[in-house]
Each structure stands twice: as C-alpha cells, then as structure tokens.
UniProtKB/TrEMBL annotation, chain A:
The keyword Heme does not apply. It comes from Sphaeramia orbicularis (orbiculate cardinalfish). PP2A consists of a common heterodimeric core enzyme, composed of a 36 kDa catalytic subunit (subunit C) and a 65 kDa constant regulatory subunit (PR65 or subunit A), that associates with a variety of regulatory subunits. GO terms for molecular function: protein phosphatase regulator activity. Signal peptide: none annotated. InterPro entries: PP2A_PR55, PP2A_PR55_CS, WD40/YVTN_repeat-like_dom_sf, WD40_repeat_dom_sf, WD40_rpt. This is Serine/threonine-protein phosphatase 2A 55 kDa regulatory subunit B. The keyword Repeat applies. PROSITE patterns: PR55_1, PR55_2. Gene3D superfamilies: YVTN repeat-like/Quinoprotein amine dehydrogenase. Belongs to the phosphatase 2A regulatory subunit B family. Transmembrane segments: none annotated. GO terms for cellular component: protein phosphatase type 2A complex.
UniProtKB/TrEMBL annotation, chain B:
Residues 1-27, 180-213 are annotated as: Disordered. It comes from Sphaeramia orbicularis. Residues 16-27 have a biased composition (Low complexity). PROSITE patterns: SERTA. It comes from the Eukaryota. Pfam families: SERTA (PF06031). GO terms for cellular component: nucleus. Residues 40-87 form the SERTA domain. InterPro entries: E2F-SERTA_domain_protein, SERTA_dom. This is SERTA domain-containing protein. Residues 181-206 have a biased composition (Acidic residues).
Amino acid sequence: MRLPPATRPEGSCPALHARTRLVCRFQDPEPADLSMEEESDTRKINNSFLRDHNYATEADIISTVEFNSSGELLATGDKGGRVVVFQREQESKSQPQRRGEYNVYSTFQSHEPEFDYLKSLEIEEKINKIKWLPQQNAAYFLLSTNDKTVKLWKISERDKRPEGYNLKDEDGRIRDPSTITSLRVPVLQPMDLMVEATARRIFSNAHTYHINSISVNSDLQTFISTDDLRVNLWNLEITDRSFNIVDIKPANMEELTEVITSAEFHPQQCHTFAYSSSKGSIRLCDMRQAALCDKHCKYFEEPEDPSTRSFFSEIISSISDVKFSHNGRYLMTRDYLTVKVWDLQMENKPLETYQVHDYLRGKLCSLYENDCIFDKFECVWNGSDSVIMTGSYNNFFRMFDRNTKRDVTLEASRENSKPRAILKPRKVCVGGKRRKDEISVDSLDFSKKILHTTWHPHENIIAVAATNNLYIFQDKVN
Amino acid sequence: MFPKGTKRKFSDSGEEPVPSGDPGPVVSSAAAARTLSSSYSLQRQSLLDMSLIKLQLCHMLVEPNLCRSVLIANTVRQIQEEMTQDGTWQIMTQALAAAQCPADRLVATEVLCRQTDAAAQAGQSPKPFSVVGLEDGYRSEEAVMEGDVESEVNMSTLSPVSPQLTSASYLAGPFGMGPCWEEEEEECDEDEEEDSEECVSEGEDGDRDHLTADSRTGEQVFGTFEIKHPAPPPDPALEELFSDVDPSYYDLDTVLTGMQSAPKMGPYDLLESLSSHGPTALSSSSSCRSDLNELDHIMEIIVGS
C-alpha cells in the first residue's frame, strides 16, 4: 500500500487552504431566521436537507444538483422525481452575515412514476440530470430528465393579479351579460409573491435505453439527450421529433462491449460535442461533418499501464462523467479512481491525472462484490477552471488545485458542519499507524457516497449532495 | 419466497477482508499463466462465479443497468480468455462433464452456461461471452410468454445440446442456485484456509473433488424434486449444505419477490422453466408462483430436517 502521491499533510498547502476555508451555510435552522423573513416561512418548512436522517425516505435521496449560469439559483433533483430550486438571498445591509444564503424558492414534482405497457416495465421517476438554460427574460428555464423523458420547465414569479374584468366576476365565473351595465378598466393589483413552475415541453419516446445525461447547446436552441447507446439532438421548441446523431448499438446485441456513459456540448462551439464510453475513451464529434456523427474527429484515450493491469482494469477505467472547462480548452473525465484533465489538442494522454482515492486500489474485489465499483461519480470545474472537485466515499469530497498541484479531502456531514464552521481537511490513513484525526481505509463508510456536486459559476460556493442531505459551503467572508 | 439459508448473500464476503489481501490479481496474464498459484486460480474462479451470478441477476431484470451488465460481461470474457489460455477452462469443463451434470456448476448462469457446454463439447476455444439477455430485456415482444422459453433456446445458437441437457440446465437454474451459492462460500473458506496454511499443493485436485462432490449434491437436490435424474446414494454433504443458515441473506430474496409482484418480467422465462417438464408448462404467472410456493415448502422441509 502506498500513499496517493499528491497527498500532503494538512496545513502544508496554504494556497488551497485559503480557497477551501469553506463555511457551511446551510445548517442554520434557528427559529429567529424564520421570523425575520416572513415571505420565506413556507419555503423554509420545505427544506428537505433539514430533515432528520431517520425520517428520510428513499425518495429524498438527491440524484442531481446544478447551479444556474448566474449562480443565483441552485436546483436539486431527487429519487422521488421532485425538483427543489434554491435562491440566493439578496445582500442586505442590515444583515450582512446572511450574504449569499440559499433558501427554497420553488418545489415541484417534475416526473411521476410511469408504466410502459408495451414493455411491461416501470419507469422510475428519479431525476437523472438537471440543466439550466441561460436566462433570457424574467423567467427561468430548466431541463430535467428521468430514464426516458426530458421536460422543459419554466419557473416564473407572479406578484400581481388582474382585477376588475368586465365579463367575469372575481371568482372567474362568467357574468350574465344582462347584468353588465357599465364598463371598467381591469387593473393589476399587487399580491403575495407566488413562484410557479410549469412544464412547457415534454420530450418523450426517443430513448430505448436509460438517459444518462443532457446538455444544452450554446446556440440556445438545441440540446442533446444521451442514453447508453445513442445520442439524440432536439430543438427546444419541437417535441415530436429528434435527430439521432450517435448510435453505437451493434446489429447483434450479443456483440455489445461498450456503452456511452455521458455526453456534453462544447461551451462555445455549437457544433462540437464530446461523449465518453465505458472503455475509458472520449470521442469529440463535429456535427458539421455529417448528420450522423459515427466518425469522431478526435479520440482521447490513455494507453493502459501494464503494471497495474487486473481483471478490474476496464471497470475502473469506465468514465462516469465528462465536462468541458468553461473556457472550452479542456475536458475533464472522472473514472472510478481518478479524475483526468485532457487538452483538446492532445489525444494520446491526459494533461493531468489526479488520484481521488487511490487507497481503494487494493480493495477492488470487495468493491466489485458489493457493486460500489459501478458507482458513477461526477466531477466539476470551479469558475476559473483552476480547481476541480469530485466526490468519494464516507461523505468525503476532493478538490485539486491545478496550478499548485495541491489537493484536499473534505467531509460533508452534519456532525462536522455547524453553521459557519470551517471545514477541516480529512485524511485517510493507508496501512501503518493511524495518527490522530485520521481515518483508516477499513472504517470508511461506503454507503455514504458523494456522487453529485456543483460549483458556483463565478464564486467559491459549492453544493454537495450527500444522500438525502444538501450541503452548501462557501469561502469564508472577512 | 425462497427459504433462507439455502443461499447466501453474495456481498457478504465483500465485507470480509479479501483472503490474500491482494484482490485484483495483478498479473500479466501470459507470463503468470504458467506459474499460477492455486490461490490465484481460486480467486479467479470465485470472481468468475461472482460475475456469473451478477450477470444472472441482471438477466432477471427487464431493463438492467446496461453499463454495469456490459462491464461484468467483459470481465467474464476476460477471465474466460485467460482460463482458456492456461488450460484451466478445459479442466473445469471436463470436470463438469465427468460429474454428469455439466451445467450444475454454472447453473446460475443459464444462458451463459449453455454456451460453455457447447464450447466444451465442440472442443474449441470458446466464443467470448456476450451480454445475452440484454437484448431480451428490451424486446418489446416480451409479452409473448409462451414463445419465450423456446425462443430462448433457439437464441443460444451455439447449442448442439441435447434436449435433456437443455432441460437440465433450465431446471438447474433456479434450483441450483442454492448449491452454487453455497459453494462459493465454501470456496472462500477454502481459500482462506489455504492461505493461512500456505498449503498450495492439493489445490487443483481438491478443487476438482470439490466440484464433483458439489455436483452430486446438486443433483440430489434435483432428485428431491423428482426431476428425471437418477438420484445417487444419499450424501451427508447435503445436510452440511443446508445447515449453514445465513439469516442475513435477503438480497436475492428481494430480487425474487420483487419479480413475483411485478406483472411480467424476464425472470418468468426462468420461473416458467421450473414447470416446463410437466404438462402444465407454459402456464400463467400465477401457477409459477404456486410452483414456487411448493418449492418453498419442500425447501422448508429439507432445511427443517
């Protein structure tokens, strides 16, 4: 057993340390808060992350989390098909300490369990992914998807209502025309703020397999939805047809040895997208070349290291997530043990490789046996593409500073994160003597896994989903 | 519901420390094939068993996690390839053939083991495993229940298998799971013992004997259910098999009961085959359930005695 090469003892990485002095903002259920802001009373009651572990059900397990492009909103999806949108509090001079706190803005049921009568199977309501559309007017739009169906939701506010119609009375009933003796001008009256979520489009019946990712194009008109074997291109306005742009289904399913695990559009070039596979490769495709992108224009793959070859080599090299950097120059991929950064100009090997939890390399057999080896960890960039973050087990998540090559392990847990507490770096001890504050590999809790995280697009605010709890941490103010 | 104790929770040994502390057999296959320690081949064998059981469970679902199934199937292919290279595969299949109940060791694998038989009989290097059943899962004509058993048989194009053998492997499927799972546990134990005593010499032979013994017990289990196999003389190993009751076993149960409550799913191919020797074969799912209940009852008697 050996230490992950990049690991350094706590305190020896001041640069990253400063960046990761994150303050927990969310465990803040003081009743005083509730009385201070009347309009948010009902929102707070809904906070699923404040529920006690014991009362949480399977449906509360968070299955995706995503900031919108301004960072003002944060959406989570869960296994029960619900979407919860959080909004950042406006900064107020009277309460400077409340800067940037996120509160529940809207909760709605995005997907319901369905039954496919043709195939006799149940379609889970679990939200696999949420993607925000860039904001173009006062309303917000997001795409949410379960295994089969993508939906476009509009989230809008209403704080006025029209009054004084001539043909309808206050309850909306049609008035008898003979009783109308005079005409009046309807007026808009202020009312309590109401946040409405309405399903605007439903994109269904295009996927035979399970949708694993969706991605909105930079042209703001199209998006792709990806399942195990195909990628489909949709226009946001058109729900009755989509174009199949990648199809890797073999004629004979017995010959199937590879599946698509994730796909994403380039952040600036609307014709370019990348998709990752279960064999550890990434393909970059150009939609200008052909309608069906069978042929990739770039193929990223790292040759296998014969010294670490095992029966699990292929499984652990399977890519669970692929993300373009904000500047569009790099690709980041997450496999079971590492996260890699690829330069789009270099296909034969990754630019950088970071060990997420190398101490699990000796435990792959057990992890295969209990199926953990198939867990799909996601990865994210910070706003400036200089730091990357991804999850691990035992409610740990990892951050890697690309410039200083320093890394840190942090823990998202109720015990450790009181309001405004500073997160302490954690360390996993590999063999030998266990020092104080270290945790041994054998006592890691593999049921507590952090699969989904998101990073605010401009600031150092992160959201981390730990089973049924959502943690939001931010750089320390002052 | 299946009686507890006839099978074990397969994730159990995952929580135990892996015997040699070196789970991923980190070996370059070609060079190491000749100097394989038996503990390595045992580990490989248990990995193979584990993978086959996982595949079997995948196969029971209408829409399995495709990525997971493909990765497991590739792992099986890889193991099989390596075993073919160092000759272990032949030994294993021969041992199985000698035991007169060829499918029984890999019973849990239904489709896969039929391919194995075929390959062994053909004496060629076996065709790589495929993710059969995935396609199955997505067939929309799944609703045609009657046709399923037959079409499945046809689908295994590799099968110069005699009808009897086919039915045997079908029957073996659900019943055989017990012995098969037991065996995995025993193997683990054996593995541990061997490691601790550093006794490597009798690994191969022991393993083979082990196989034979097991297939006999397996057959006897079938005999109990009056399936047309001549029952060998009573084997005390049978009692041992069932004496080790593991009440923590729920996983497979959940899967199975889940299936039962679901209106129509892939597993009925399997379940139906339970009754396919009788004239009432190819009946509705309710009769499958009653069959299962009967089975339950019999198993309870066995466990109770």
